[in-house]
Design brief:
With 369 residues, the chain is α/β, with parallel strands linked by helices. The chain is 42% helix and 14% strand. Strands 1, 2, 3, 4, 5, 6, 7, 8 and 9 form a 9-stranded parallel β-sheet that branches. Bound molecules: ligand 9MR. Ligand 9MR binds next to loops.
Amino acid sequence: MKNNYNKWFLFIMASVLLAKTSYAQNTPTLKQVFKNNFLIGAALNAAQISGKDTLAAPLIKTQFSAITPENIMKCEVIHPSWDKYNFDLADKIVAYGNQNNLPVNGHTLIWHSQLSPFVKQIQSKDSLLQFIKNHITTIASRYDGKIFSWDVVNEALEEDGSLRNSIFLEKLGPDYISEAFSIAAAAAPQTELYYNDYNIEQPKKRAGAIALIKNLQSKGIRINGVGIQGHWRSDNIPLKEIEESILAFSALGIKVMFTELDLTVLPNPWDVDAADVNQKAVYNEKMNPYAAGIPDSAQQKLTNGYESLFKLFYKYSDKINRITFWGVHDKQSWLNGWPIAGRTNYPLLFDRNGKPKPAYYKVIAVGKP
Ligand code: 9MR
């Protein structure tokens, strides 16, 4: 009798497992459902590029149709001193992209943040201009024809739409942006060139981005697209402003992309949308409410947020070329460490075990109703 019970138990368990597996197998992947709409990208960290993240490896190949290096093409990694470059991981991600038919977006050539110490010490205008020339020419020409696109200039605007008060603006004046795009166009004639920033869906900052793009266009300098980063709060997504921005940017005749998408579920110390890596706040337990797991209410907000966002993206898929998530799974997300270090956040479509979350299935359903 007991033996029979055991047999039935095993049979039922096996059937449940089989049903679950075949359901997972029958669910199309992100890149499959949106293949006629836009590329679905992911930002890869160093462990993922070097194949050490075994959780992410199968997801990258099956779910995504584009990749962006999260950190390893930034100045402080790729160009550590005046005449020294470190191309190890950059070469790896480019080779991986080419082998797996995944267009690579280079991130990023000119950014005020994560600069190598030697750049911060440059005093003269001429030397800084020389740095920009060397940096862009060396890196962009190396990968021309091998990567698809570059975020040429990243985060050059303040929230009010004026130019950010960076070392570049201070020493070179506003023309540094045209310089950077001209140098990139000469070094990488086969690579698309983009401007990338956060909060440029917001009216004032958007106006600044439009002025920046129009300025390049009026000078005949090539710019192929704009990246709206998309670091938003799951219960406060600016859908109206996003819609207006898709229309306003595409009216400039350039590609529109969402390049760093993630939706935080945690409280923000200043109650604002932001992605400035220099803003930091101090840890306390109240600010880390879901360390033991995400409650249903927060999971639901995340799911609803992603669903409404992808409905909007789908509606405008003729104007949007790529949606890139800023990470593959929750464990990797920068939002576990920003703006407060040591928190547990849940901003992506795959959880800490690489399993699709409820939001994933809603997003898939938008592409395959
Ligand atoms: O996700 C990135 C994180 O790992 C880095 O520590 C940080 C500083 O280099 O940059 C993060 O990525 C940023 C991106 O490069 C530009 N937009 C904002 C992103 C989140 O801060």
